[in-house]
Design goal:
Helix content: 25-40%
Oligomer: single chain
Shape: globular
Number of helices: 7
Strand content: 5-15%
Largest sheet: 4 strands, parallel
Number of strands: 4
């Protein structure tokens, strides 16, 4: 159940019995041959699946994140770190004002991590606020699946190649991960990574991807029980 499907009176009724909501945060950035909105599509699909089972509300996703290193790839839209953090705080404070107290943030982009420290500061100010920040690809279960199949999780690789993130046919041959050191500028990033994939297979079997998705799905179900 998405917030966009309700009017304000529906939300008021929801809050009489449930103070939980899922907030998807992602990015609009290059993902090699995959959708530019991959970092939104994946956690949103997970949130929708969990919502269908639990009835927990899903807020509209924040489609823009912190991606300065990909700005030489057309289509990437990046927020400044300070802007992103302020937006996250404003969203949380708005939800809190209406009565939401347990907010599960489903993050799809590693560059968004600086917001976690601000969330702690906000929690110090708002009594009863509980937030969880969940990045699905960092799940221990996902790590186990990758290791079992001798796969390494990398940006714009097999790990993110779900049916709903594919927008074209993917290369068959795996890519050797480029070697580099230090922090790269946007120009250097494109020179090093070329097509945008960080290496490895571009896709794997549907069975592995289904296992990955179900693992994250179970994680989210568990996390929604937080007190």
């Amino acid at each position: 159940m998405r917030l966009e499907e309700l009017n304000w009176m529906d939300v008021q009724d929801y809050l009489k019995t449930n103070d939980r909501i899922m907030l998807v945060v992602g990015a609009t950035e290059q993902h090699g041959f995959l959708s530019i909105l991959t970092d939104v599509k994946i956690p949103l699909a997970m949130a929708d699946s969990v919502s269908q089972e639990t009835g927990v509300l899903v807020a509209p996703p924040l489609n823009f994140g912190i991606s300065p290193y990909f700005l030489t790839y057309p289509g990437t839209i990046s927020l400044r770190v300070s802007t992103f953090i302020d937006v996250i705080e404003d969203i949380i404070r708005s939800l809190y004002q209406h009565g939401f107290r347990r907010i599960l943030i489903l993050n799809g982009h590693s560059g968004n991590d600086p917001a976690k420290e601000r969330l702690v500061e906000v929690a110090n100010q708002l009594d009863g606020l509980k937030t969880i920040w969940y990045s699905w690809w960092l799940s221990h279960g996902v790590e186990v699946i990758a290791q079992k199949n001798e796969l390494k999780p990398l940006h714009a690789s097999w790990l993110e190649a779900f049916p709903f993130t594919k927008v074209c046919d993917l290369p068959i041959e795996p890519k050797n991960p480029p070697q580099y050191q230090g922090l790269l500028s946007a120009k250097e990033t494109k020179e090093v990574f070329g097509d945008g994939s960080f290496g490895g297979p571009y896709e794997v079997s549907p069975e592995i991807m289904n296992e990955i998705f179900f693992c994250a799905y179970q994680d989210i179900l568990h996390l929604l029980n937080f007190e």
